[in-house]
Amino acid sequence: MDPLSPTKPRVCAVSYLNTVPLVWGLQHSPDPALRDAFELRFALPSACADQLASGQADIGIVPVIEMARQGLDYFPGTGIACHGPVRSILLVSKVPFKEIRTLATDSGSRTSAMLAQVILAEKFGVRPQVFTHPADLAEMLGKADSALLIGDAALRVDPATLPFETLDLGAEWVSLTGLPMVFAVWAGRKQVVREPYGRIFLESCSYGLAHIDDIVRTEGPARQFEPELVRRYLTHHIVFELGERDYEGMRLYIQHALSIDRDRDKVMIVSK
Description:
There is one protein chain. The radius of gyration is 18 Å and the shape is globular. It is built from twelve helices and eleven strands. Helix 4 crosses helix 12 and helix 5 crosses helix 12. 47% of the residues lie in helices and 22% in strands. The protein starts with 9 loop residues before the first strand and ends with a helix.
């Protein structure tokens, strides 16, 4: 997109529950300057990243690992993070974690898929073969030692009732590093990441956080979640307003993730 063009920026937002407060103002604010600022569409996190890479979108809620891989800039102040258990990023294994050799990851995941590999390498000393699979836990565990569920699919699972070992990867990252985990941020090419768009995203987030009751009332039935699960998830597990400590955690995560990327590239080169 030409930054001087009068055309509305094309914005791709994630379709999961954890994004709703970020876009609530863009969708429901009485202020047309906020509500009509963008051409808004929704997709899985991985698809949002692909749309930015292909030029189909100008700005997106982008997995942090894809922001780094694509060399994107981000709008500071808002995103999707956690300071402890995140509840919606679950690593489920039918074998002890130290024995994992294969990992099926939700096809919508990239930051979380890499986070699983970081945790498994750093805490358990294993580097499993990873492949993507639709988010069906039974099928995933039928084809792999372990499975990664993210977003709404993870919220539909009660870890306490599963007959498998389960890790909340938000809690694991915070325990490992002492820092928050940032999963996604509003990002785009350098020429697009500028005012007034950053202010609009901040205002949309503020509007959403001020209307949690409306979100709970709307999104619970729409997604077939109990209202209390929606409220607790959005107010106790997910952090939407980001500060310097969050970005410190994000930078450390990127270092870990890119190191795994480099190691994988070396293995591919040697195997050729």
